[in-house]
Each structure stands twice: as C-alpha cells, then as structure tokens.
Write a structure and sequence with these properties.
24 strands, disordered N terminus, alpha/beta, 5-stranded antiparallel beta sheet, 8-stranded parallel β-barrel, 12 helices, single chain, 506 residues
C-alpha cells in the first residue's frame, strides 16, 4: 500500500513537469483533454451556425445569447470597462478545439452574452476575442428609446408593466349562424349576448380589474356588422367603443382586434372567415382588410397608449387548416403582406396611431410550430419599439382542452391528459423557448394573447398547478399572458374558480 502511494506521487510529479514544459513553449499548441492550449491559427464567431460579427439589437433585454468561438487555441474575451454595466459575458476565457477535425462532435467553445434593457439613447459596444496575435470582434448596436416626440410607452415598457390578462370572450366576437338565427332582426345586444354572456357593463370590467388583471383583450368580429360596401355600422362601432372605454376607465390596457373574420369557416355561408391567407387571393382580401382597419384606426386615432391594436386572431390558409403549412407555402407570404399592410395603414392615420403599440402574430397564432415561427416576418415600421408578437398557447393540448368523444363508428376515444406532470412542463418550456428565440431574432417582445387550462372537467388541483407554472414562466421570461375567459361568472358576479385566479396572481 505504501509503495502504491509513493508511485502515485511520482506520477503526479512527472505529470506536473510535463504540463509545465509544454506551457513554457512559445506558441505551442497542446491537447489537454479539455481543449487546445497555446495560440490559435484561426478564430471566428458564430451563432446557430451563422457567422457573427455584428449584432443589431432592439432596446429590450437580451438574455442567454450563445456565441460560438471557433478556434484552436486558448482565448480570452473582453468588454470595454465603460460598457460592463450593460454588456455581460461569461466565461471570459477558455480553451480552443481541433477545428480541422471535421469528425469532432463539437468544435466550438461558447460564451453566453447578456445585454441589459436600454432606457436611454442608442449605444454601441464590442466584445473582443483574442488568441495570440489573432482577434475576432463582435460589434453590438443597441437601439434606444427613439424619438423624443413619441408620446406612447414602448412595447417593451408596456409588456414590462403587464401583470396578468383576461379575454372578454364570447361577447363582441360572437357570430351565431344557422336557420335559427335571422341577423336582420337582431339588435346589437342580441349579438353581444348570443353566446351566453351578459351585456358588458362598467361594473363587470371593474370586477375583472379589481382581481389584478391589468390588460383585457376585446375580441371583435366585424363582418356581420358591415354593409355591402364594407362600412361598419355606426351602432356596432359605437358599442365597441363603449366597451373599450369601460376597459380604459378601469385603468387597464385594452387590446382591440379582428376575431372571427378569420379562422375556420366550418361550412358556414354567412361570409365568416373571409380573411384567410392565400397569396393568389391576397390582392382582393387586403382591400377589404385595409378598409376595415382604416375605419377602426380613424375611430380610435386619438386614444392614448393604453389602447393596443392586434392585426388578427388566428388566421388560416384557404383550406382552413389548423396545421401549419410546409416551409415556403404562399400562406406565409400572404400573412406577412397583410400584417405589413396593417402596420402601414395604422401609422398613416396619424394622431397617436403613429406610435401606438401593435400586435402581430404567426399562422394560427401558433407557438408550437418551428416552421410557422421561422416564416413569420416582422413588418417594417416607420417608428421604433412599438411592435410585439402575440401567440396563443393551450399546451399541452390534451391537458388544456377536452379531447374525448366518439368516433364515426361509435367507438369512444379519450386522449385527455389528466395530471399536470413534468412532461406537461416540458411541453410548455418548449413553447417559451421557441417563441423567445424567434422574438429575440426579430428584436421584439412577446406575450401569450390567449392561454388557459379551459377544460373545466379536469381536476381543479391539476389546473391550479398549470396556472401556477405559467405564472412562474411568465415572470421568468419577463412577459405575460391573457387567460381565455372563464374563471368569472359575469351574470352572477361570482369568481367561481378562485384557486386558479390566486395561482395566476401570486
């Protein structure tokens, strides 16, 4: 035993001498087992496989942005001392890899970059990577607050001020259809209450706000209230405006959108779902779409920044497929064109619309499709910092919704997930990861415009777990979401699911 210890000491000493002699050699390169030491013969930077030399950022915070350092020697990274208050990197040094070995699993070292939220003017810095005489520089350009004439808080500030949101669903979005419904005989109140909700009052909105919800989305379906020339009937526009005022009077942010003018037609022949994404039909559709938004934008032009416009709800292709089309499909071109038209038109109406915060979205408002997110293009905007991404997430689908019933042959199926477990959390984590990544690439913040465990047949305890987890995720990602109605019986003025509300507000 004693001999073994002596032999071990000798081996350690020899190893130490060997490493010392290697590190003393000028410009020598050695494989430590962890990576290559010594000076490099190459040093380049990349992100997700794309060469990186300049990073143009919005004013928002950038977190956990991974820089790949492709080098075969020891390297160091530095930030100018004056900029270390807002540019942060870790680690500051590391080993290289055998970059010439094409069979290596990983030939990069990694640096995590964080850039703080910019509350002032535009700014520039650089991260310098060195190995021996070689240098690679990443220039960082970050936008600031923009024009001093801008009277409206940025989309970043708006999202940062959100607590939790609520959708006033099945109300102004209701569009009943069938032999039993004769639209020519119906009043504005008939339409508003046709899907089982009461007529909205200031007291209802105040009750929602009093629970801590500080952003309320008003989904609106417009086509049943437009004449043959696509003019919105005054009595309908006046009622929409009245409900918007209820929300603003309660001190909440208000989202106004175009709801069931898009989505699935489901065989209806009343003109519903006229707003779909098809590149061939786009020229005709955008004429009607722009006339609709022209009227909305002009009506609300002088409202303050608490009012937000959303381009559309869950737009689908001409086949009304809820499955995102393959990459390159013309539906994505049409969506991107329509949302560019939306931004251009709203800005052109002037007043506070020049700077109003606007929400844009993906195909079917999905956050689960990599293709739909990748095909989303941020509209060009004449002002900075006033666009954000809104997606909808009822994930995992079989937990949040009821997916049980009978097949055509009479056999029963039940795909419901009844326990909120780690697999459910992993699905949700994946949505946040995808959406955060795409929003970061576009330089805009994001919210969940709709979410919720809305199958009230599921266990309350499990739904509370879901609500608590989403609340945690929103806070961690510095964003917010709007629960899809429920929770509150507006007719009885009763919060019938208080445990979920409490979980959302903690």
């Amino acid at each position: 035993m004693k001999l073994n210890r002596i032999f071990s000491v000798m081996l350690l000493a020899a190893s130490a001498l060997g490493f010392q002699s290697c590190s003393d050699s000028d410009n020598a390169s050695s494989d430590t087992g962890l990576g290559k030491t010594g000076d490099a013969t190459v040093i380049t930077l990349s992100h997700d496989g794309t060469s990186l030399s300049t990073l143009d950022l919005s004013m928002g915070e950038l977190t956990s942005y991974m820089i790949s350092v492709n080098t075969d020697g020891e390297w160091k990274a530095s930030v100018p001392a004056a900029d270390t208050t807002w540019v942060h990197i870790t680690p500051h040094e590391g080993y290289g890899w055998e970059v010439s070995d094409e069979t290596a699993v990983n030939r990069n070292a990694y640096v995590k970059l964080k850039v703080d939220y910019n509350e002032g003017a535009a700014r520039t810095s650089a991260v310098t990577f060195t190995s021996g005489a070689l240098t690679a520089v990443l220039t960082i350009n970050q936008k600031g607050r923009g024009s001093s004439d801008d009277p409206i808080e940025s989309a970043w500030d708006m999202v940062g001020n959100l607590k939790m949101g609520y959708n006033l669903g099945n109300t102004l979005d209701a569009n009943p259809w069938g032999d039993w419904w004769d639209p020519t005989t119906k009043t504005v109140k008939d339409w508003e209450t046709s899907w089982g909700q009461p007529e909205t009052t200031q007291e209802i909105i105040d009750a929602i706000a009093a629970k801590g919800f500080n952003i309320i989305r008003i989904p609106v379906t417009w086509y049943p209230h437009m004449d043959e020339n696509d003019n919105i009937k005054e009595e309908w526009m006046a009622r929409v405006e009245q409900v918007v005022n209820y929300v603003l009077n309660a001190g909440c942010y208000c989202i106004l959108n175009v709801q069931h003018d898009n989505g699935a037609a489901n065989g209806r022949t009343d003109g519903g779902a006229w707003l779909y994404a098809d590149v061939d039909d786009y020229p005709a559709i955008t004429v009607r779409y722009q006339k609709l938004w022209q009227q909305i934008a002009e009506r609300f032009r002088d409202y303050d920044g608490k009012l937000i416009f959303e381009s559309f709800n869950e737009i689908l292709n001409k086949q009304y497929s809820w499955t995102a089309p393959a990459a390159g499909d013309g539906a994505y071109t049409a969506i991107n064109k329509l949302q560019q038209d939306f931004v251009d038109l709203v800005r052109a109406t002037g007043g506070n619309n020049l700077y109003r915060n606007l929400a844009v979205t993906t195909y079917s408002a999905t956050g689960t499709s990599d293709v739909a997110l990748a095909e989303f293009q941020l509209p060009q905007d004449k002002v900075d910092n006033h666009l954000y991404l809104s997606i909808h997430s009822y994930d995992p689908y079989n937990f949040c919704n009821n997916n049980a019933g009978k097949n055509d042959d009479g056999s029963e199926y039940d795909y419901n997930i009844k326990i909120f477990d780690d697999d459910c959390k992993a699905t949700i984590d994946g949505v946040f990861s995808r959406v955060s990544k795409r929003a970061t690439e576009c330089g805009i913040p994001y919210i969940f415009g709709e979410f919720g465990a809305i199958d009230e047949e599921k266990s309350m305890a499990e739904r509370v777990k879901y609500a608590a987890y989403l609340n945690t995720k929103f806070k961690a990602n510095k964003t917010a979401g709007l629960w899809w109605m429920g929770l509150y019986d507006r007719k009885a003025d009763n919060w019938y699911e208080p445990d979920i509300v409490d979980a959302l507000m903690k």
